[in-house]
Amino acid sequence: MAIIADPTTTESFGEEKPLLTPQRMRLLAIVGGVAVVVALVAWFMISADNRKELFAAQAVEEGRAAAEQGNLPLAVQQFEQVTKTYAGTAAAFDATLGMVQARLVNDQSELAIATLTEFLGDDPPATYAAPANGLLGTAYENTRKFGEALAAYRKASGLATTDYLKATYLLDAGRAARLAGDTAQAGTIYREIIETYGETAARTEAQVRLAELNLGAI
């Protein structure tokens, strides 16, 4: 005789528990709450960094405006404040370069050298290290330290990210070499520009300078 199961029985074997038990719901609520808090903290930190960069950039523009108006002491003061308040930001790097430029215009080359030496000692990104070395070369030229200027311009060219800038810094290096009395080095630099960066506008000047050196050697 076939045995028919009683449809009214409430007992079942291997019955699965509901997916969302009260315990699981409480756990999910806790985990979800933690995730929200983490997200809010991350958002706040990102927003704070963005605000910091914005304020720093505005301060740099104020310094540049002061420099353009001829108020170099105020410009230097503004740039210095940015480097201290927003250290490590892109704006602080820009402010350092702006401060050095103001000092060079104000005939404060020794101060510029000290500032740039410290700045480069902290190993800034190449985007800022290249122009910093270029400014350092200018400061050394102003103080008639032509050998140091040559090295700084060479370093700037090596760090520059475009052929135009590389060639321009090499022209500066060639000039420094000539001022140092090293015409052989100057000739080497001008030939490098002609051969390696012949597609840039610097080629024409390099050819002229090289011709001058050759005429002087006759």
Q: Which terms summarize this structure?
A:
single chain, 218 residues, mainly alpha, Serine Threonine Protein Phosphatase 5, Tetratricopeptide repeat, 0% strand
Describe the structure.
With 218 residues, the protein is an all-alpha fold. It folds into two domains: 30-86; 107-217, Tetratricopeptide repeat domain (Serine Threonine Protein Phosphatase 5, Tetratricopeptide repeat, Alpha Horseshoe), CATH 1.25.40. The chain has helices at 22-68, 72-85, 90-105, 109-121, 126-142, 146-159, 163-179, 183-196, 202-217. The termini are far apart.
Outline:
By secondary structure, this protein is mostly helical.
Which architecture of the largest domain would the CATH scheme give at its second level? Answer: Alpha Horseshoe
Run of helices and strands:
HHHHHHHHH
Query: What percentage of the residues does DSSP assign to strands (E)?
Result: under 5%
Instruction: Provide the CATH topology of the largest domain.
Output: Serine Threonine Protein Phosphatase 5, Tetratricopeptide repeat
Give the total of domains.
2
Number of helices: 9
For this structure, what is the CATH homologous superfamily of the largest domain?
A: Tetratricopeptide repeat domain
Largest sheet: none
Helical residue percent band: over 70%
Number of strands: 0
